[in-house]
Amino acid sequence: MARLHVPVRLRWSDIDAYGHVNNSAMLRLLEEARILAFWAPDADETPEPGEYPAPVIDGRPGSGTLTVIAGQRLEYLASIPYFRRPLDVQLWFGRLGGASLDVSYEVCSPAGVTPPVLYTRASTTLVLVDAATERPRRLSDAERAACEPWIDEPVVFSRP
Amino acid sequence: MARLHVPVRLRWSDIDAYGHVNNSAMLRLLEEARILAFWAPDADETPEPGEYPAPVIDGRPGSGTLTVIAGQRLEYLASIPYFRRPLDVQLWFGRLGGASLDVSYEVCSPAGVTPPVLYTRASTTLVLVDAATERPRRLSDAERAACEPWIDEPVVFSRP
Amino acid sequence: MARLHVPVRLRWSDIDAYGHVNNSAMLRLLEEARILAFWAPDADETPEPGEYPAPVIDGRPGSGTLTVIAGQRLEYLASIPYFRRPLDVQLWFGRLGGASLDVSYEVCSPAGVTPPVLYTRASTTLVLVDAATERPRRLSDAERAACEPWIDEPVVFSRP
Amino acid sequence: MARLHVPVRLRWSDIDAYGHVNNSAMLRLLEEARILAFWAPDADETPEPGEYPAPVIDGRPGSGTLTVIAGQRLEYLASIPYFRRPLDVQLWFGRLGGASLDVSYEVCSPAGVTPPVLYTRASTTLVLVDAATERPRRLSDAERAACEPWIDEPVVFSRP
Fold this sequence. Notes:
The structure is a homotetramer.
Chain A: E1 4-8, H1 26-38, E2 65-76, E3 87-96, E4 100-108, E5 118-130, H2 141-147
């Protein structure tokens, strides 16, 4: 059981006229969590120890790999009010395939809120694509090893 | 077989550094399609004939009903380049339940592009909530009748 | 006195928790108005007569020209409620320089709202940049002629 | 000379097809900087010492005060590439009026980038409005005192 906990800040523009995070903002929050968790640091960046625990796949422009989103699923359990503090987005690999993988997420209230609230469950299927050939490419052994500590059972949705 | 065809314009800000519509913009496009298809017109608006074929549920602020998003699923089949012309978002009701309903979508290239391209399949589960009691409420007979012409088989995803 | 009237649709996500268009959405609305007014049509697009009156500068990716934003100014006169109908964004050239130009805007209520409401005044300074050399380039005679019908006094702001 | 330095993280969706932060994203970044600098913390939040140096005006929904944006001005000096690290947004009060104030900004490269790059200069005019009466209200003595340490000469724009 190993999950990455990524603090993701809301923006005021994520809030809609009902005073809650609009459902359509959620994919942006998940995207930010993936980038902070999995992307390699900026070229001139010295991450603080433990800051980005698992930059396992370098999918940035220019890296030679595109991480293409093939599908997403979201389940909204409760509406999210505005917090100035970052949400606690928990994510892990629910499945590692040959050239694809599934990221599981649970989007929770900011660290320190008691009791914690689970707002959203989600899953993203990513396909690794060679930027030059534009064809799927297999995960390398190094990538697979880097992912290994963060593999767990995929998130379970309430609805079929 | 009856689908609503809603023209939804991209914004330049939907395009990411890869030159395509970012996956996270898709929920906003689906939201716009739902609003144009299903919301009642502005109070002082006289829609042109056929412009908004099915304003079946009045879920606007102040209407007494909240249409709460319970879940979404998306499948991305091809990346979407920038078009100045609106995309052709096709949507219909894949399921009518007691207090909830599923909207199915196929997001296609602008009308006139040949051959047409199917970019994205999606489905949204909506729950009707009474704004005063904050509890789910059943679809009225009038709402059910208004939806009737636009019911069809739910969209079929390629992946399980 | 010649202004372009560009219908620009709001998105629900432009509305913030106060129930109005968030000020930070305005630059996106102005951007959409500029694109619809001034960009050349999609490659395979046959605009309807009068639809896009003045595609004067081809600043799209791949066109060889970048239209770089050098500065913007905005004055918010009244808060904008949600409309399903497009806003009437009026724009014109307030100044044509050698390699730069100023676009003036008045953002108004949707066509048909009486009396019309002026919500926002704005101005954008654009610099034409050669995409290959990344240096400013002068407006061509053809561009200057295409702009000519839409030149007028620059928008006047209330505050200094 | 006292400026607040607010770290503001980019989102991937701020980047456009040119690979830079789109100009229209800037107002959102400035908004985030203002919120982090000036808003009171979440109700149940214990800010870390020095984290939010100057929550001087409580303009959150429900606080009784609206901070209405009356005008904005932006000058873009250089295009902003994607950084995973937060930008260093520097802001201060360039003017305190009776019921209004001007915030000055300089948007700079992330802390640690050498030499630092100044990307954008901006200024926002805010009016304090009583939420009940919807009329401007004067800054209180307490607010004025809280602002005092962060007053400096207003940002100077290159263009008139």
